[in-house]
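Issue 218. Parser rejects a valid record. Input:
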Amino acid sequence: MSVLITPGPIRLAVLNTIGGTKLKTLWLPQPDRKSPELEWVPKETNMDLVDGSERTRRLGFIPVLRVKWSPYDDRAFGGYTVGTADGNRPTLEQLLPILSMASGFLKISLGNGSTPYVFQGIGGATPYGFVVGRVDVDKMPYRSSTFVDLSVTFRGRDIVADRTLGAF
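Output the parser choked on:
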């Protein structure tokens, strides 16, 4: 199956409990041209056997999504209203506290069937996403009072058996 990621907005869901139901969905601005980057971190255990060889038990993979905005554009355009209500686009000042939420209260999606950031594979476009275990704001240097570069890494909370993301 071929996997393509095409540019477009990213959806960020705020959950009511850890891995629970969605309270609201926020739309983030379209990231930079060479962003996002999806990586699969293998989770496994290795054991040395008596003869010196290794035995590996693969538990699965954790998705890691790196997104970069140069700058983070939080203006109201393209049909989005600025704010933190369901369906809105948060400003940078509104987004940073949301990204500071406890593990498991956020879910990120690379898009839905009618918008970009969709994996194209066998059977057409399918939406994918994952519950976020950790968010790292990698860098945020100020260029001026209104434009800010932002680089964020979303690390999955749950191990998945193979390199596929759950539906969102």
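Fixed in the parser; the record now loads. Helices lie at 92-99.
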